[in-house]
Amino acid sequence: MLVELVIAVVMGLLFLGIHRKVIARIQGRPGPPIWQEILHTLKFSFKETWVPRTASTLLYVGIIAVAMGIWTAALYVVLAGGSILILFGIYMLHKMVEHGVGLSPGSPYAKFGGIRSVISASSEIPLFAVIGGIYFFTGSLMISDLVAYQADNGPLLLSILPAAIAMYLVILSKMHYGPFSIVEAKEIVSGYQTEHFGVWRAGLQIGDAIKTFVLLYAFVLIFVGQLGPVLLLVAMLALLVSLSFICAVSPMLSPYDSVTVQMVAICILVVWLGVLVVIG
Amino acid sequence: MEKWKVQTMTIAAFIVVIGAWAAGLVGLIGQGATAALLVVFFPVLCLGMMLWWTLGKGEDDLPFMGY
After folding, report:
1. How far apart are the CA of B35 and the nearest CA of chain A, in angstroms?
2. What is the pLDDT of residues B1-49, one digit of tens each?
3. Distance from the CA of B40 to the CA of which of A22, A60, A175, A275 falls in 20 to 30 A?
4. Is A83 helix (H, G, I), strand (E, B) or coil?
């Protein structure tokens, strides 16, 4: 699994770079090279690093290890074809990371980011629609079972589109520069990451990279099925570019609007799923 | 944290990560055990490698409190 982990880090950083590049091109800017996030991580890892005087050292440093650790575990769950309940449990743990990173240094900007991560809990609600929809239609929550089901019955993307849209919203809410990225809005500097610099920021970047890779990979496995390496990469890239497009053309919402839009979206999706259940 | 502690921790994490990977490859331990060891020690190894040269050069500072 070590090889897959290293691939996930490199590919994840590359995906984040492509995300920035696509947003820039859509907005008519040249944008950074697609390997910029890899260079960023390398640059941060050689920066002078210390712990701020007002920080809780254990939380300030430990939470970075947690950020990388939980997404390493998520990668294993996806590779092993484990339960999507564990995967989504880890997704919810990421909220704890955002909160911990924000509260540990003692800076008000980071603290605001941490608090916003709590009020943006509505971004997790679509997960329930995903879990409920998938379980009703397939009778299992194991990724390996879902892959086998799709090999026999075709992609779930077509049969339970609202669940796929719900998971798409979940991934969108965790993308940088997205309409729901209120935890790192510029009016609070860099949000919860404001005071994590140098090696600490590089660690968060690595966690982010694994997270991006895992979420894109999981979406393809859960809603499209098992693909060959090239097709898998193409599918993940297509998914990423569509997310980047939305991020590029939509403004970052205010915290209130972000929560409202997500709540309205999930209500519509739940009704849609209900209709599918009644019909099916 | 003192530099020698970070370096010792990094070397220990490196040994565990490589050992877990190799043991998993030859079947000495299960994939779940390999993953569990990587979940704990991969972050330590990453942070340790990056802190190897940079730790302890700067003094503690107050965080950015605004203008």
Report:
1. 7
2. 677 888 899 999 999 999 999 998 898 899 899 999 999 999 999 999 8
3. A175
4. strand
* Furthest CA-CA distance within chain A: 61
State the CB neighbour count (10 A cutoff) for residue A83. Answer: 17
Structural domain of A205: 2-279
Q: How many domains does chain A have?
A: 1
Domain boundaries of chain B, sorted by first residue: 3-52
Chain B: closest CA distance from residue A54 (Å) = 6
CB A104 within 8 A of CB A97: no
* Amino acid making up residue A32: P
Which H or E run contains A239? helix A229-249
Among A152, A206, A241, A219, CA closest to A38:
A206
Contact: B58, A50; criterion CB under 8 Å: yes
| Burial bucket for residue A34 (CB in 10 Å: 0-12, 13-18, 19+) | middle
- Contact (CB, 8 A) for A197 and B58: no
Q: What is the ipTM of this complex?
A: 0.85
Low-confidence residues of chain A: pLDDT under 50: none
Write the burial class of residue B66 (CB in 10 Å: 0-12 exposed, 13-18 middle, 19+ buried). Answer: exposed
